[in-house]
Queue: 2 jobs
Job 1
Amino acid sequence: MEKELRLMKGNEAVAEAAIRCGADGYFGYPITPQSEILEYLMEAKPWETTGMVVLQAESEVAAINMVYGGAGCGKKVMTTSSSPGISLKQEGITYIAGAELPCLIVNVVRGGPGLGTIQPAQSDYFQATKGGGHGDYHLIVLAPASVQEMADFVELSFDLAFKYRNPVMMLSDGAIGQMMEKVWFGPQKERSETVPEWATTGKPATRERNIITSLDLDPNAQERFNQKLIDKYNLIKEKEVRFEEFQCDDAEYLLVAYGTSARVCQKAVQLCRAEGIKVGLLRPITLFPFPSKRINKLADKMKLILSIEMSAGQMVEDVMLSVNGKVPVYHFGRMGGIVTAPDEVVEFLKSKIIGG
Amino acid sequence: MTEATGIKEIIKPENLVYKKTKIMTDNVLSYCPGCGHGTAHRILAEIIDEEGLQSKTIGISPVGCSVLLYNFLDIDWQEAAHGRAPALATAIKRLLPDRFVFTYQGDGDLAAIGTAETIHACNRGENILIIFVNNGIYGMTGGQMAPTTLPGMKSSTSPYGRDVKLMGNPLKMTDIVATLPGTYYVTRQSVHTAANVKKTKKAIRKAIQYQKLDKGTCFIEIVSNCPSNWKMTPVESNKWMEQNMFPFYPLGDLKVPAEETEK
Amino acid sequence: MAKIRGSIVVDVERCKGCEVCMVTCPTGTIAMAKEVNHKGYFYAFPANPELCIGCANCAMVCPDGVITVYKTKI
């Protein structure tokens, strides 16, 4: 299989990967720091090559509802935005989850709350993993930490979305969206002709009508549906946890970090080790399902654990839940759109080792 | 007895003139007695049947009294969030261009929360049919004021009558979308008399033809009644509608294709 | 001389007694029953069946589609 090497921004890699994996549609709206995705797609004109639909919607609200419509037809559709736009999409996202539709939503996170900043942050963790929209549902959340992963996770997201009939989110950040790195792409895949049996495509005589809805006014039926979703998420927790470990084998201290923070922590680990501090890094790749079991196991041999995130401390709560009181857990990270520096992580770890 | 029949000798299959279309399911409609929704649904179903479009149609239902529309017509349906139906329709039609795609929306859905989606779908000239059922009130939620509620009209949130100084004037969405180049055929109809039912059927049939020819957005407003929340009998509500709604929302074509006017 | 004669069949259990068919009927065929169906509605019925001309106006306006219409030349 021929692979092609390119040099491009994380955002551009998402767009190129979408075309190559045979996505059927992209519906988006400009917002910094991810507008390049829509711009790249408009310039690439995939509707002339693969027939992919690309549309700049009038708002993020409209875009997510276009995704709902397309997903309901069994198509591979996606949208991208950044934090304030993702907030706008929450209504559509819960409807998509409630109707059990597959799709990809990419959040290139910027500082918040409110209009915030345009620089990178990781302060949408709660929104992505704990809800964001109303009701009992979860997104499968993938956290890329490189331009390569921005590309690779597009197809992975669609695979997971269709496997579980669930929306999937790629939780990126402004740094990864904007940085340029080498990225390998596989060859162009054909757009799928397969029509899922639940999709609305026009009712033939051979089946009952398909109805895409999240409404059920019968509370008993709705409870059964809620339980069905719970069962689905439990299966996802069992089968789809992904993470990467860096120098954890002999570590006495653990850093837990994803995305840009994980890259920072990789450097921090090297700096610490140079000073003789045995620290390791666990990088969650799926934020939902969270690698709780693995962190709980690692906690057995750690003296303390740090959650390094560019936020006021969100993932740290899941780390604490995973650790379940075995060892102290602390959060550290810059906010306001500032990227934490490796030596800041080192200093903080040292302060906790000494001072507690 | 379950049936009341006229002269029995005439009741023979070869004498059949009118029967409810099989596209309507057997489910009892959830609407109040005399509500225009039922008639509008049936007309739509009849045309889908007559044009042989059941296997090619995707409908998008709103939030409002007709949220359960998908229980009544035997076609593929998507339930949209409040006001968002034109966005769903946009994607569906662009991804499946050979299907007949329509939205069916009430006045809250289309003229309040959905104004952006309505205007932009029309502005882009999406190849869809938007059916807008306007009865000047929010039915499902219990009779609150709608963007299309008439000045002076009472509702549960305008108990002293709509005061245009505080609440603004009624919004004429049909007139607004008619000004957009993206709309191809814009008309206002009703379904409260047999003559109007025939005209509405004709309008929907035209819209289907235009969609087949990729002409742009077709927009059909159906001015209708709400006996329950207007607090009238169905027959009274139709009279009130004629006397009050029609002067404000006049029936007829607002925009016809140039080819038609030349005839 | 051939005369158009019609006959309607009303599904009385699904009729909601809205009376729109009655006011639409051009010949005065339809009236509302004095008894209710199992939902409590006074249902429509062909009170003067000999007046029916099978125009189907009633069926066309019926919101619940409960009327079936037949027509013949006699």
Job 2
Amino acid sequence: MKTNQELSDIASQVRRDIIRMVTAAKSGHPGGSLSSTDILTTLFFSEMKQDPATWTREAKGQDAFIPSAGHLAPVYYAVLARAGYFDPAKLGTLRKFGSDLQGHPSVGHIKGIFQPSGSLGQGLAAAAGIALGKKMQGQGERAFALLGDGESEEGEIWESAMFAAFHKLDNLVAMTDWNGMQIDGPTATVTSLEDLREKWLAFNWDVIEAEGHDFDSIKGAFELARKQDGKPKMILFRTEMGHGVDFMTNNHGWHGKAPSEEQCAAALSQLKETLGDY
Amino acid sequence: MKKYIDTGKKDTRSGFGVGLVEAGRADSRVVAMTADLKPSLKMGDFAKEFPDRFVECGIAEANMVGVASGLALTGLIPFCGSFAEFITGRVYDQIRQEVAYGHTNVKLASSHAGITLGEDGATHQTMEDIALMRALPGMTVLVPCDFNQTKQATIAAAKFEGPVYLRFGRPSVPNFTDPDEPFEIGKVYNLNPGKDVTLIAMGHLVWEALQAAEALEAEGISAEVLNVATVKPLDEKAILESVAKTGCAVVAEEHNAYGGLGEAVAGILAANRPAPVEFINGRDQFGQSGTPAELMAAYGLDAAHIAEAARKAIARK
């Protein structure tokens, strides 16, 4: 288990990576990447049973993670690279022609990616399939999925919610990056998701609420999610879009826009370089 | 010509059900999934024999396809089944991302395909599924012609590594292929060598093509009959060799004119060996309620229409 300081240092570097990747690519999705950075950093460095040295797409002996909101590719790639799945030097090739780091996650090129994602609403089903497959074969590991709150407007999410509860997939842990923002504005003004907690409870899931930028809170939520009580887990992480960069914070305009060079420099001045830039 | 005997009409979906049980006995990784259509997909025997390997998904096909991809990742071999409309059009995006692009070992079992679904009418009569599935990179598309071949194709699909779309139907149709002949994915079956025209068919229209060939024989026309049980990847060599010999072709399919077997064959011939081709298909229209036989005749999919198309093709040589 990493200390909060260690996690904070990794997360700061991951945020720098995200800003630099998206700036170099001149397109991409920094907002949600920054809001889910602390969650994914804690997941990969403190919670998941995972090992890049023995990783295979079959997830034998390991936990699996599906980023259902595939546009969070920048944070996903940065966390994978910093966790040792591939050389961080590759991060600079995001969205470039010929790069393995496609605009949205793609399989078969780099380690750590189980399924493609990008078309929203599909990753929870895939994670549920992995969780069920592991149960059917007597394997003890778990499947994790990260959803966007806006993504949860997709109908398939609720099909999967019914399925996972009915099949008692308590080895499935879904996480919502609940930053309250989507492309067209605050989720409350686009189409209301409220009451998100009550919705998941009504679908017969264990629901855990946590602060997505507080490492104690994140760790506590993951600890509660280990409970084997026959119910799938949903952790609703309250987060801020663009967290860590003041001019991006809580601004839905940064859902899918690259910073200029000047904005990049301003953002990096707010994020400590801890592990060395790629 | 070679004589084929209908050993008694049977539905191809039952061939799938029997094949699924055999595949399940042969390999403990085989899993069956359905979206509230267990009886229609003939999955009852599998579910009874392997209750722990049967996954009921409820009326939620999108989730079913996604779950299938996850099961496949863990090493299982899921067959997820529904009506052709609901396992293609309804879930095209899920198939595209989770199965085709993800290249997961998922078998899409598609029943009640085509207009011969019959009385349920146009909402359920999918004539576009082959076009959708053919257009996906890496998708293997199988359309066996009768009960026996559907059973064998199911067994072959379970052994094959990669995404498969397996199409079959609701009505009882003549059962005439060798029950013990293993299905070879990628093979075009030459059922009757001929020299004047090549009749190229898929699914139960293969039987109609054989009937047409018999009628043509009585007129002194020698028709070669090809059973294209693998629509993708399509055996170009078999098509080209046959048309090189006969000089013209008829393509018969229970599908829309666009994106089906007819266009596939036309593309091969245009690129390699232009020849007159006539097309038997559902044209570009939706179906309607009726019995399979009524619809086959009304939409021009039966042996009489194939024979007429053959005469036209020969006249154009």
